[in-house]
Amino acid sequence: MSNPLFITNEIFVCLYEKEGSKFPHSAKIMAIKEIGGTQYYMIHYRGRKTTTDIRIPAGKENGRMFKGMLKEYGEKFHVEISSDAWEAEKKCKRKAMDDLERTLEKKEKVVEQNTYVFQCLFKINFSFILRFIVMFLSY
Questions:
Q1: Where are the annotated coiled coils located (predicted)?
Q2: What whole-number distance in Å separates Cα of residue 92 and Cα of residue 76?
């Protein structure tokens, strides 16, 4: 098998076919699977339902799959990007930022919990040490 030009989780521009026309749309490689001896890119159009997901055979990328983002594609090929495609890309970026914020909040909570546990253990150990010293001095 040849090495695919794209990798799993890569964001790129894929031409979305609708009513006989092709429109550039932001997409993501969800997986690369071998089916019947042929490698396929499992592609999700970002911001769209999974029912629009497609697969393209590795080696058949030309004219359909393009490295880079929508803005770069539009500038390179002098093509106007549809408002649907822009909205989908913005929605995905907002979701990614929201996911990142939630992850950071979770990590902050874990740090707070670990700090609390450490403080409790320190107090317990400190009080144990004090009792041990008092007990030792009292003998």
A1: 83-113
A2: 23
* Mean pLDDT, range 66-78, rounded to an integer: 93
Q: What are the contacts of 29-37 at 24+ separation with CB within 8 A?
A: 32/4, 32/6, 32/7, 32/8, 32/58, 34/1
Q: Indicate the range of 3-12, 24-33, 77-86, 92-101 predicted with least confidence.
A: 92-101
Average of per-residue pLDDT across 37-58: 94
Could you give the number of structural domains in the chain?
A: 1
Write the CA distances from 63 to 56, 59, 60, 101, 124, integer angstroms.
12, 11, 8, 37, 67
* Separation between Cα atoms, residue 130 and residue 139, nearest integer Å: 15
| Residue 87 CA neighbour count, 13 Å, CB half | 4
- Specify the CATH number for the domain of residue 17: 2.30.30.140
Structural domain that includes position 59: 10-81
Predicted confidence (pLDDT) at residue 1 exceeds the cutoff of 60: no
What is the rounded radius of gyration, in angstroms, for the C-alpha atoms of the chain? 27
